[in-house]
Structure formats: C-alpha cells, structure tokens
Amino acid sequence: MLLALLAVAVVETTALGLATARGHERAPPARKLWSEALASADLQVGTGPGKQNVVSGFEVVATWLSGDDLGASATPADRATSFYLRPSGGNLQLARAAVEPASLPFLRTHLEGELAKDLMLQGQVNLRPDNGYQLSMAYDCLSQGEAVLTLTLEFEGMSALQIPFKKICGGERNTALTVTAGSIGATEKAEKVAILGTPKWDELKVIDVHQTSTVFTVSVDPLSEKGAQVISSPIASSSGACSAQAKAPSIGKQKNLAAGESTEVEVQYRCFRHGECTVSLEVPFFPDMAPYQPLRWSWTKLCGGKAIGIDVELPETRHQLLKDSPATPWIVHTNVSEHRVRLVNDRVRSLESEVKVRGLTVRCLDSKRCTSRILESVPEMLRADAPMDLHVEYECHSSGNSMVQLLLDTDGHDPVIATWAKDCSTLHDSFLGVVLFMLVGCAFLASPAAAVVFMDVFMGSGKGKRQPEGEFLEDENLTPEEIAALDRYEEYYGLHKGAASIEQVKDSLGWQGSGRGWQARGAPPLPPPSQPPPGDV
Fold first, then answer.
1. What is the pLDDT of residues 447-500, one digit of tens each?
2. Residue 115's closest CA among 104, 106, 124, 103?
3. For residue 529, pLDDT beyond 70
4. Residue 486: which domain range?
5. First vs last Cα of the chain: how many Å apart?
6. Residue 12 lies in a domain
7. The three-state (H, E, C) secondary structure of 215-268, written as one string
8. What is the pLDDT of residues 303-336, one digit of tens each?
9. 238: helix, coil or strand?
C-alpha cells in the first residue's frame, strides 16, 4: 500500500513539473509578474510608430535577434536609432533606460528625446496604454569600428527587457581634399596646409601677434580618384590665450565640391591675454563619419602686440593723444583743472565689436608737480557703437609742467598709452607768493606778535578765526588759568581785548612757567586816576 502511494506521488510531481516547464516556455522570458494588476499589461516596440518589429508581448522578435531586420544594424550614415514604445492593457512604470556600453574607444552613445529627459528628471515615467513614446539612441563616432549594443528597459514589477542592436562607424581617412593658406586667387604661391587629406600644419606652425584672422582655401585635388566630395560647415576650436571662430558663408550646412573646385574658410581670432593659443580647424564630410572622418589640422597663434583700432582723443577736436601719434603733444593750461578725453573702438581696424577692459589709470609722471584722477569708474567693455567720455581732474602742488599718462589695459593686447602735458602754477612759489613771504619775514622781525596774527589770518593756519570786526572768537572751553594767561599776554604786548588767541599764547616762550617774558613780568602800572578840580562836586 505504501509503495502504491509513493508511486502516485511521483507521477503527480512529474506531471506538475512538466506542466510548469511547458507554462514557462509559453510565458514571455523578459517578464515576471509581481501582482495580478500587471498580468494584463503588454508592450510593443518598433522602429516606427505603430510597428512591433522589435518587441511584441514583452518578447524580442526573432527576426530582430537574428539580424534579418535591417533596422537592427545602424549604418555609418545613421546618426541615431529611434524606438517607439506602445503599452497596452494597463499602465507601465518605466524606471530605467540605458544603452550599454555607453562608451567605446571609437564610439559614444547617449539617449535623446522627451521620454529620456522625463526619465532623467523624474526618476520614472508612467506609460499609459495605447499611447506612443519615442526613445532615441544618438551616436558619436570617433573612428572606424563596429559595436554590439544593448538597450535595457526596466519596468516596475518586472525583470529587465534587453534589446540588442549594432552600430557600424565609418572613419576612414579621406584622400581627396587639399588645403592651402590664403585666398583662392593666391593658391599657386600659397603654403600647403594639407595635401590629399594629409595635414602638413601642426602646433609648430606659428601665426604672429599682428594677424587677426587666417584664410584657407579648401579644394578637391584633381589628382585624387575620389571625385566630388560633400563637406559640411567647418568647425574651429582653440585652447589657451584666445578663442577662434570659423566663417564659411559659401559652404553653409553642406556643399558639394566637384573635382578641381575650391571654397574659402576664414578663421578669426580673439585674444584674451598675452601668450600662446592652440587653434584647430575641422572640415567634416556629409554625412559625418560615413564613411570619412573629418580633415583636421592645427597651429599656434601668438597673442599680444599693439591694440589696433583703440584710440584716445579729445571729444571737441578729435585730437589724437596716443603716445605714438604724430600730432603735436597737447598741453592742459594752468587755468584748466578738469577736462574730458574719449575712448574709441574703431571696429574697422580692431575687428571687434567689444573689447574687454582690464584696467584704466591716469597719472602725472612728475608727482611733485601735480596729481590726477579719473572721476568715472573703470568700464568693463569698450563697444564700437558707444565711445566713452572720461573726466580727468588735476591738483597742482608746485609751478611748472608735467607729462600726464593714460594707460588702458585690454584683453590680449599691449596696453594703450596716451600722453599729454599739464601746466601748473601755485601761489607759494610764484612772484606774488615770494613777495608775501618777504612781508611776513619783515613782520616777524618788526613785531613777532603782529606776524603771528598775520599768519593766522591771511595764510590760513586755522588756529584763529576772525570775526567781522577783526577779533578772534574765544573758545568757551578755556580754563580759568588759560583765560588769565591770555589777559596777561594781551596786556604785556599792548593788545586790545580779543586780539590774541590761546594758540599764540601757548606758542610763546612765557607759557607754562618758563619764568621769562610776559608771564614773569607783571602788567605795566596803570596811570593814576584823574581828580576832579577843587570845588567840583
């Protein structure tokens, strides 16, 4: 009996295992349901709206896996591959989407589109049934190669769905283009930059400080067997002391160059500071890397030198004040303590609509004669359409003249230096000043007290303040001792009340107990009072 029961159990277990195995074969291998709510949800993926040639029922289609579907392999001309997701039967929560591997030595990939953006910002995206969602993989080929890639989609409550595909990168070297330095009309004598796709220029090639742009002529070499070439808009890049920009209006987005045909590319430089700048120019083919890699070459640009087109002038007369200007030096006369100068950016010569200002100073070279300053703050930019007026103010210290120097420091160039002269005249070293000082000296010899009063009143010593009637204002904070000393001083020298100041008293020899002079001697005796005549009451 026991043996019979065991036999029945073995048969039931075997049947259950077979049934489970058959059920597993029928279920989609990329899906594991966590709840009954997900049982009705389904997903179709195709390379176009409404298609399901990639995934059907959460299972990768066999033709896609085998590579029979042409969409499963991206050609060198394909810049991206787009997948269209369409859920059905219920909502799906997309938690992650990634291309693996994302980086290879010859290829870079990344996701594009609204779905990829929402997924990055929100962390997950709710896919509603019967709605279409586009997810694109963009390619950036660096060189030749073939990559096997996998798009992984992870949904909440399910195992990951993996979609394999391939990308073929072009990148063979083009042997059709020849590049020369200079415009089209000077190609016979121009320097060769690249010959049959092989660059001849590198970082050892140097462009001097005075050159603001370089023109290249790109042509299809008649000796090449490649025939006509389709090129895209050139791209310039730089590192170091400048920026570079490529200008090729005749090319636009793309241009078909026939054998022997030429076109021009201009690279413009903008220096930020003194030093070296490494510049590269790339001429891509269309489509990019399909099959040719861009033609690239590089060189070195030296930054510095004279700031051409930046002028300093007088607003009223347009008189040039630059140091090297052939005009007669301008002189600021003695009666002028303030005037204007104008900074101008002449775009025709500077080739820049805006020039960044790093510093601006003005000074008298003979600081004993005068000092000068600019009333405005230092500007950040000097724009071609907005000349800037600056007010220069002077303070003279002695008579004579001094050279004045304005120094404007701009990005990538030598400082701009403007010079002119300033005449100064001051009282203390003029003829009138000498006469006044002689009078003061004589006054000292004749009457020291009168000389002190003269100095205080007329020379602005600041120790005494004159009232309208000629008396000093006494300080209300004087101590009784100081008031008594002031009275004795005035009595000793025969001055009327209020004619002296406490500073004069303190400066004299008799102050604070020297025992001499007005403090040691008492006041002169007063005359006796007059008596009325006898009999007069």
1. 655 555 555 655 554 444 444 433 444 455 677 777 777 777 777 666 666 656
2. 124
3. no
4. 433-520
5. 176
6. no
7. EEEEEECCCCCCCCEEEECCEEEEEECEEEEEECCCCCCEEEECCCCEEEEEEE
8. 887 788 899 999 888 888 887 776 678 899 999 9
9. strand
Q: In this structure, are 335 and 448 located in the same domain?
A: no
Pairing of strands 161-169, 73-74: parallel
Using CA atoms, how far apart are residues 59 and 110, in angstroms rounded to an integer? 24
Ramachandran region of residue 469, left (φ > 0), alpha (ψ -120 to 50) or beta?
alpha
Question: Of 217, 216, 297, which Cα lies nearest the Cα of 261?
Answer: 217
Token pair of 515 as six digits? 């025992």
Residue 160 lies in a domain: yes
DSSP state for residue 466 in the 8-state scheme: B
Q: Do 286 and 398 belong to one domain?
A: no
Place of tokens 């404007």: 408
- Residue 23 within any structural domain of the chain: no
* DSSP single-letter state for residue 516: -
Pairwise CA distance, residues 323 & 365, whole Å: 14
- What token pair was written down for 442? 């004589």
Give phi and psi for 399, each to the nearest 5: -75, 150
Residue 392 lies in a domain: yes
Contacts of 83 (CB under 8 A, 6+ apart): 45, 46, 47, 54, 134, 135, 136, 137, 151, 163
Identify any residues that bridge with 466 across adjacent strands, giving them in sequence order.
472
